[in-house]
Amino acid sequence: MSLRNLFDVGPEELRAFVAGLGAPRFCAEQVLHWIYRRRADRFGAMANVPASVRRALQAEYRFGVLALLERQQSGRDLTTKFLLGLPEGDGIEAVFMRDRDRVTGCLSVQAGCPLACRFCATGYAGFTRNLSAGEIVEQLHIIARTLDPPTHVVYMGMGEPLLNVAAVMDSIRRLTDPAAFGLSPRRITVSTAGIVPGIERLATLERPVNLALSLHAPNDALRAELMPINRQYPLDRVIPALKRYLRETGRRITLEYIMIAGCNMEAAHAAELAAIARENAARINLVAFNPVRESGLRTPSAEEEGAFRDRLRALGADAMIRFRRGRDINAACGQLRGRRLETRSEPDRTARRR
Ligand code: SF4
Q1: Which atom of ligand 1 is nearest to 113's Cα?
Q2: Which fold has domain 4-62?
Q3: Residue 332 has pLDDT above 70, yes or no
């Protein structure tokens, strides 16, 4: 029988397991402390936990399932990207970003992604499977024990979070549990391409988190060209879902917008985008397109980026340009995994494409 991933087990279940061994209650708290505060990477490190309890834990659980395959640090801004191996051999990515006191962990939710957005390297490499809540939580544990514990978490790595909404919600519960990572939900942001039923389900989370919509085009025609999911969930379904989320949770919405030269940065696009932002009291996060070889799309110049932002501001929108982090380390979502897949045999890669 294969062992369960320790990170798939919540604090309550661990407490029950330790209590079932006949150990005193504080012993379970010690175990949790070692996992989440001391960021141990094996049961053997839990020095003040009785050996009998450590042995029982080891017989029941596996201390994580992800293998650290590769770690790249940007020479420019200390952004660090982790390529992590799943038990069956595929890879996922997690990213560490530091901005003064703010340390952000960017987590993946799927191995690959089925949504095939035109500007995204993950979309080109195909979809393998959803991650479990434990595999999501473990990414944060690896970042925290290798570098520093993140103060903020964004679900903006590989995959669409709201196509794996049950595991994402479970992982958020673990991230916000005071006995685990203990993060404030206000410091957690889930980014979606606009999966309407998922937005509705996420709103039911006991402690709601921030929501970001990966908008990237301000009208259905262009958005469907860049993001095929827009055919299933067009803007006249997504925007009302955002409004409901806002109403039910009181959280602020962010619109993510990748600037692509000659594509979505015309004056008319700025007018449409500013109108959506104003109507939803949303902030616009602009980020320049990070080159993806297969896409045929072009990165704007710094002047084009600044002009687009200024146009939005002149139209009354709250817009800012997010610094492109880790450009020297394949930091666009999915590029590190894509490179790994390229080293596999061609028939294997072809089988992965949808
Ligand atoms: S941008 Fe996000 S939703 Fe689109 S293919 Fe990439 S990972 Fe999937």
Answers
A1: 8
A2: DNA polymerase; domain 1 (1.10.150)
A3: no
